[in-house]
Design brief:
The protein is mainly α and 301 residues long. The chain contains nine helices and no strands.
């Protein structure tokens, strides 16, 4: 199975290799800082908080996976030099975001909402610009997928739904910045954790929106050709239901583990549909002929 997945994500152009290198660097950083975080936890330090090892670990991991996902999307598009624009935007500004967060942690100061010194304000501003540029790159990729896609139907659904979820997650992240900045201005200190309302976990909603595309991509790659579109559609409905549920609880100020009946039912339905899609996908893979396929890039322009 792993060789089959690799055959569908292996970089075959300079653009794809660039994003793979960026992703590898970021995931390596996540692993290194993860080891440091484990030692810190054993010594009594907290995992959460404005100054914790969680941030360099989680942000490096998330942006690393995003870069690898960008390389997968490039495999489904015609090769053209103009794709270097969103490719460089995604890779360079993903690196910039994670580097800024990591530097602030090693300095022992908060990375977010910290404008105590000129340097801190510059780092926070750099992070804001980096996120904006990454979201803009994702918008460009989405437009390209809509007008010049070269994959199959299941991959198309996975790419479109996944990119749209990423863009919404970016919007939620921007809302978190606004709420956190307001809390910092009101209290004079960086908040321990940004919540919406009383107990709304915007962080969880942001996380689900960012990583739905990886789930859909795996379903699209592993499923048999005969069932691919149906299973990706099922996974998309399930994933979007979970995303919608945690987003509703966030914006209504509810804890995601104690939602109201509507949000809770939507979340449970989403989990069940997602699990069903994953199980059926694995069963489908066991039966279909796993011929390793390598797409020949179609050059345009």
């Amino acid at each position: 199975m792993f060789s089959h997945i690799w055959s569908h994500i292996r970089p075959v152009t300079a653009q794809q290799r660039f994003l793979f290198v960026v992703g590898a660097i970021l995931l390596a950083s996540a692993l290194i800082h993860g080891g440091i975080a484990v030692v810190a936890l054993l010594s009594g330090q907290e995992w959460s908080g404005p100054i914790s090892w969680r941030k360099p670990v989680v942000f490096a991991g998330s942006f690393g996976m995003l870069s690898l996902t960008g390389a997968w999307i490039l495999r489904l598009l015609p090769t053209t030099r103009w794709l270097w624009v969103p490719t460089l935007m995604l890779g360079v500004f993903s690196l910039t975001e994670v580097i800024a967060i990591t530097i602030q942690k090693w300095r022992g100061v908060p990375s977010h909402f910290n404008q105590v010194s000129t340097f801190d304000a510059a780092m926070f501003g750099t992070m804001a610009v980096s996120v904006l540029m990454v979201v803009l790159a994702l918008v460009i990729f989405l437009v390209w997928v809509l007008v010049a896609f070269r994959g199959n139907g299941g991959e198309r659904v996975a790419a479109i739904v996944g990119l749209m979820s990423l863009i919404v997650a970016g919007y939620i992240g921007n809302q978190m910045i606004e709420v956190g900045t307001a809390q910092t201005s009101a209290t004079g200190s960086v908040p321990y954790e940004v919540v919406f309302g009383a107990d709304g976990s915007a962080k969880l909603s942001h996380f689900v929106g960012m990583h739905l595309i990886q789930f859909l991509a795996i379903i699209a790659i592993v499923s048999s050709a005969r069932r691919r579109l149906v299973l990706v559609a099922l996974a998309a409905v399930g994933g979007l239901s979970v995303f919608g549920s945690v987003t509703v609880t966030a914006y209504t100020g509810q804890p995601w583990i104690a939602p109201d009946l509507g949000a809770g039912a939507l979340g449970v339905l989403g989990v069940l549909l997602s699990l069903a899609a994953a199980i059926l996908c694995l069963r489908s893979f066991d039966r279909h002929d796993n011929v390793i396929q390598t797409r020949t890039p179609v050059r345009v322009g």
